[in-house]
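Morning run. Coffee first, then this:
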Amino acid sequence: MHTKTGSSVSPLTASVFLPTYRTFRHARSKPEFKADKPSAPFGLVALQCRTSGIPARSASSFMQRALNTLRATTDTVNSSAENCHATEIRAAQEVREAAETLIAVANSEDFADDEQLEPDNNLIQSDFRRNGDILHSTSSDKTSTKQDCTSFNSNPPLHRPRSKSSSNNYATCSAPLQDLELFDPIFLGAVASGLVGAALYISQIRKAKRGDIGSSNVGSRTIGQANFERLLGFHENNGANPGSLTTLELSEDNGIERMSFDAAAATTGNVTPSVSSKSREISGEFKRQLRNVMSDLRRYSTVDLHGRNLGDDGTSYVSEALAFNDAVLCLDMSANGISQRGVIAMCEALHNNACLEMLSLSSNNLQDAGTVALATYLETNPSINTLNLNSCGIGDAGAVALAKMLKKNTTLTALELNNNSIDYEGTCAIAMALAENSTLEMLSMSGNYVGGLGASALANGMISNEGIKGLMLNGNDIGNIGIESLCRALSSRKTKLSNLDIGNNGIGHEAGPHLAAYIKDDGELSSLNLYMNELCDLGAIEICNALKHNAGMEILDIGGNNILAAGAEALAEALMENETLRTLELGYNPIGPKGGASLANAVKFHSKISTLRMGWCKITMEGAWHIADAIKYNQCVTTLDLRGNELGDEGCAALAHSLSLVNENLTSLDLGYNEIKDKGAFALAQAIKNNADGCIASISVNNNYITKFGEVALTEAVELVQELNPDRNLYVQF
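And here it is:
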């Protein structure tokens, strides 16, 4: 059905379908219809209703105006006998002109949808001929002409019987126009619009012939149905290798057709449905961008394409540069809107690439379908050792495919699956794969749905695994049960972990003994993250006792565990005996002034800590005095974070006094969110001036109560230091 848009005509339609475009100025006259059955209007306008958008109802109204024009001409003949001959000639010319403008073909379905009318071509044409005969009869005499015209005006409306013709097309005539103005602005505007539309249409045809438009679909082509079934065929072959795939030919002559994921899912039946990304036309500026990307891929060893919005079409286009590429070693394609179609194109190209070692596809909409395609390719990949699939919408089906890949792949050493939707089923599949895989060294599954049962399954898989040295399970709600199983398994492994991240997992103080036992046994563990759990003082005391016997721990993050002064005192005792710990994160623990004083005494002479983070620990001005005193003697601390501790001007002045006396190691000091005012800023400025040769390189006092006066004082101090010591870089952040 046509869309009812009134009598508007598009410029292109007017130029192609309307050689003569005219304006009807006569008043509308509603067409008459037969009472008992539908009848056609008296005439049809010379437009194709479906193309131009003019409804059949409007077309019949326009034809009625034309008949009114003929009647008006007849009245003119009756009123002026002297001008009868001239009127006859003018009427004949208009009739001939109307016949010459007969160009459009009306579709009977348009009229049937609007009024259920079926026009009859023969009756319409005979209607025009009879009207012309009446006009010509005026040459005999005035009386005869008047009688004929009276007879014409008194004729009843023509009844249109239902046509028996099977044809859908009817010839139509345009009605003569009354008082046509040669320079009518509407007429001229319509003609101009038609010419512009025709020019644009011809220009598009020429561009298409040259290949400018046609070539835009080159990059959006993907492999055909056969290749797709081979990529995903391991479901039907019970994990068998689907075989090698041919190289993707990005040309218009290869006969490869675009295939949506809906059709692909219908062929396999084993892939989770996904919404395919929208096609993007590859032309103009975007095409030049893609060519620059391809040039970079052929020239540089590390290429960062993060956030370029390539999409599937752009990825398919630039993948050609990856085939037979011996330059690029590290490729970042994250956040580019890539889905299954783009991944398949990349895999096709990478079949002829033996150089790429690191690939990042994070923050793309791979879903399970794209992950399955990628995993199938990686089963036989000989070069990629690091794969980043963070935030790709991977579920259990994708995790199962990756697990099957891990059983066969012998080159992958690092796999990141953070912030996906992997649940118990996917975790169990990966755990079983780890029991057989001996090459993977780092597995990161933070931000999934592993849970306690999943952690127990991973523990069983880790017992037999001999390759994993880094395990990240942050934010998986493992709980005490999962941690207990995991710690026992890790303690019994032959290959010890060097990096363990189990932060934000709801671990309580009940898990403290299990964690302590594992820390004692694993002398190779260098980094332990327990951030944002609920260890409290009891759990912290257990861990601190284990630190006294650990000879490998270098980084400990125990922040956000609700540790109070008792836990801080136990930690201070452990620091006096531990000689390997270098970084301590204690933020978001309300240890108070007493806990701050205990840690300051430990750091003063005994500890080897180089990075100490104590933000939001409520040490206040009293604790700041102890830390300032420790800085005077400590020779190891290079980074000190004291944000949000309510130091005030007094605490800031105490720290400034220590900086002005001696400062041979501290390079970074963060005093943000401490209610410092101009007085504290003046003290810091004076300390900077007094120790122009110091090592401090960065001071942050942001989010305090320092006005313009304090800022000017600090700025002048920095300028003075740079004048005295041009080689020194000092940065103060307000």
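The two ends are 67 Å apart (CA to CA). Good start to the day.
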